[in-house]
Design goal:
Blueprint lengths: L1 H13 L7 E2 L19 E2 L6 E8 L2 E9 L4 E8 L13 E2 L13 E2 H4 L16 H4 L5 E4 L8 H6 L6 E4 L1 H19 L4 E9 L5 E4 L2 E5 L3 E9 L5 E10 L6 E4 L1 H12 L3 E3 L8
Antiparallel strand pairs: 1-3, 2-16, 3-4, 4-5, 5-10, 6-7, 8-9, 10-13, 11-12, 13-14, 14-15
The structure holds 2-acetamido-2-deoxy-beta-D-glucopyranose.
Amino acid sequence: MQVLAALCFLVLAHLPPLRGEVVESFKKGPHCLDFFYKGMVPKWNVPKRHTVYLCQRFNNRYHFATLYNTDHRIAIYSAYRFQTGDDGGREDYWYIEPQLVNMSWNAEMEDERMLRNEDNINVDFGKKQALDEDYRGSIYDRGHLNPNGHHTEDSRTATFTLTNVVPQNRDLNQRVWNEYETDLQGDLRKCTQAYVLVGAIPSADNWIVKNNIKRVNIPDRIWNAYCCLGNNGRPLDSGGAIALNTDQSRVKRHTLSELKLLLGQYTKSPVGELFHNNCEA
Ligand SMILES: *[C@@H]1O[C@H](CO)[C@@H](O)[C@H](O)[C@H]1NC(C)=O
């Protein structure tokens, strides 16, 4: 028994430590690439400045990946694998990314209130990310990019992290974008596997302002792209959509090639490929 315990200790002590959540690139965190079709990160030269790569970890597992802009304090996109959703439901709390406060902190999303203590009273938690207080009192919803309704259990809970949300028009979030997410849920059920990207096009100068400080960029548009695989992992279907982040908005469906052109125009950064081989067989 003691020998076994000693052996266990030896083995555990020599396992590599779990990697951090903030990584140098999605390739540097092997689990991050699982959320991209055939491990291919979108070929899209977004400006490198202020851009960080997040492998979203919760409860000791990785659940999705987010490309995040620490200046806008919103994501460029979140990438995930579709799971048949459960009831949807809601959480009452929002996580933040400890490693965006201090790289030596926990590599898992956490509730800000649990992170606060006497030793870090003077630490600026919101320097590189949006905090719950930024959204409090705002007319904008905390709009999920990776939606909770496309996941189950821990992966669903993990979507409730502020690095996965953007200031979203309430009407868009609760009406037409929500309907689109539900429709997509129906469409993607026929896939053996599906890879999804959901992103935001930042505005030139529209912000949630707190104490005269531009805190969180209010994006002009929200977009979605998906790649649906059938048996043998062959592409079966693909597409996406874009919506203006305004009242009375409509969700316009697009093919992947239309979407690439539009995203390129709106961001002035041309898009090569969103999915491996454009999700073609
Ligand atoms: C980061 O956290 C560590 C451990 O809590 C602390 O020693 C260090 O001073 C912190 N760094 C900064 C820049 O706050």
